[in-house]
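Field reference: sequence -> structure
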Amino acid sequence: MMKHNSGLQYYLLVVAVGLVAAIFAVALYILYFAIWSFTQNALGYSMLLLPLMAFLAIGLPYGLVKVFADTKKTGTGTHTVLEAYHLSNGNIGQRDAIVKPVAGILTIGLGGSAGPEGPSLLVGGGVAATLSRRLKISADMQQKLFVAGAAAGLAATFRTPLTAILFALEIPYKNDIARELFIEAVIASVPAYLLSITVLGSEPLFGAVSGASLTFSDVGFSLLLGVICGVYTVLFTKIFTYFENLSVKLRKKIGAAGLILLGVMTLSLSGFFAEDTLGVGFPLIDQIIKGTAISTTILILIVIVKTFATAVTLNFGGSGGLFFPTIVVGAGIGYIFSSILNVNLHVMFVAVGMAALLSGTHKILLTPVAFVVETLGGLFAIPALLASGISYLISGKASFYQLQPHTKLKTEELALERFYHKGKALIPEKIKATRASEVMTKNPVSLHYKTSVHDALEMFKRTKLRVLPVVDDATHVIGVITLEDLGNVDVHRREISLSEVVMHNPAVIDENADLEYIAQFMMEKEQDHIFIVDKDGKLAGVISGIDVVKKIIDLAPL
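Structure field:
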């Protein structure tokens, strides 16, 4: 059993993971083009075959996953990777590592609106998880290898190693970077890229653009485009989440077959309206970058239809990724923007649109810029970075991925996250029906705001707690004091009252709040203790993260 993530043996394993992941990712990529060629020939023969192809794109992958996979859930590969990373230390079953990537390739190859990065991330992570189990790798190392494998799969598919490395660091959290994954991501992605270009060639995905110069007005317009993409991010993610929730409700009412039928009808209508909305979207990107004349009105409709087609494909039975559909929609928005402004360097705004929309929807800031640089050239790096930052900020909390914490979690917060998401999947009704009053510790120890620092320290000694609420005369919670805060008070000033000490703002929730809201609040606000108040705003109880975990364990057969 390998216990330490250092030494030649370990890093050779990381290289091996990258190479094996690349072999499978390249094989899937080649398979995709073969299936897509078949689909194009079929539709070229007769568009009346579109409903059949749509059925195969959604129904076939759904059936494949339901029959052969370990976890019977289709959808986005990136979400599955995030689930594995956060909830099981990067452990994906061998059958999931095979079946789900193949399902994703069938979806996009047969015309479903999704991206190839979903299968590549899954197969790369699956390779790492399989090797980790065979070699009995420790849990912390398994998680790093898992991300390294996923990054290698992405690097091999798009031939963009820097994009893959940064994506591995940025995607786990909305407002944080998983720095501890950097070395493994680099060591796995570089050999994966080298193997990929040996097989697929070294030509950039979209072809490098050069021989142009930027002006201050171009940079200014890029900032404006970043605002537009930030707003569209909110719309895109809300549409995706709406269809995600709708699919759960519809499956209960009309069953899986009815849900698939609705997906087939939607995808067929999308294809009849505009064939460019089908599949990954490489042809549309090629037209946009080359500056092929496309009616602005038509392109606006294509962007909107592509948005809905992606949400339906990935929530009504299909599998794949959201990275590339976002690139396609962002490119379309950029081209529309440049057409309306009638600018010469339209490809710059195409690049900026790609980066800005990707940044907002995935909550990644540097990855989109790296992608633009590696697929179109370094000319647009600065405008793309500025627009990505604007989109990232304007879009706020909006993201495709529910399981994407704001920052790296501490041990207690990590336990809360894992048990909450498992409980939500198994017993959502019970979690919503459980109130704060059923979980809280009643009549908690508190400190009056006139209590001296000396007396407060004595209270901490008796309770063995490190966080206590501070209340006023009416027992309203006015602040929170920690043992560390009192330790900062000079020993000669310990007779001052707590009202003279800098206190933290209290995390207060009503006693009728449900367990789902409590868990989400604690994770989002990074609180390990929240204070419960009654209808009059008076302190009634306290809940810790472990209290929530224990309650979920009581409610669910985890």
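Note: The longest strand covers residues 477-482.
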